[in-house]
Structures are given as structure tokens and as C-alpha cells.
Design goal:
mainly beta, 4-stranded antiparallel beta sheet, 1 helix, 6 strands, 44% strand
Length: 98
């Protein structure tokens, strides 16, 4: 039988540096955006470079790089331990740069 957390889940606010440290420890996350008036989620790889989370997307191959993407774009990454059912999740807004 696996260990399970006791008590209610709790949320802890992290500093920017703590968030970037955690993001640097995982290779992939999800880009969340609106595509042709519908919500969409894409799995992408990222890297943390000099305080920036960088997501590379080729404009011609990905809806994330397409002009059809409008509104708010966000990035989410997480790391969950299935044995203890604990972990972290972080989300941040995305600024597109071409």
C-alpha cells in the first residue's frame, strides 16, 4: 500500500526564483490557449534561461505560433509524485516574441 498525504491539500505561494528553479527541473509543460474560438492545450518542451522560460514554437508547424491564436496564452508545468500524491504545479502568462 502506498503512503497517502494526511489532511487537506495546501497551497503555498513561491517566489519567482523558487518557481524558476522548479521549472528548470522539468523538461516539459503545457501551453494553454484559444485556437479558432475553442480552448486548446499543447504539450511543449521548455528551458529556463537567464530568468526567462523559453518555449520554442515554429510558426508554420504549431497552432501556438499561428496568428489564429488569440487572447491570453498561459504556460503550466508540474511534477507530481504518484506514490504520495504530492507535488507542485505552476502557471504563468506567455508573451509571444517572433
Amino acid at each position: 500500500m502506498s503512503a497517502r498525504p494526511t489532511g487537506p491539500a495546501r497551497r503555498i505561494e513561491l517566489s519567482r526564483a523558487q518557481c524558476l528553479e522548479r521549472l528548470a527541473g522539468v523538461a516539459a509543460g503545457h501551453v494553454v490557449f484559444s485556437h479558432q474560438a475553442l480552448p486548446a492545450i499543447g504539450l511543449v518542451h521548455h528551458l529556463v534561461d537567464d530568468g526567462w522560460v523559453v518555449i520554442r514554437s515554429r510558426k508554420s508547424l504549431s497552432p501556438v505560433g499561428s496568428d489564429a491564436v488569440c487572447g491570453v496564452v498561459a504556460y503550466e508545468a508540474d511534477e507530481i509524485d504518484p506514490a504520495t500524491r504530492t507535488g507542485w504545479c505552476g502557471a504563468l502568462p506567455v508573451r509571444r516574441v517572433w
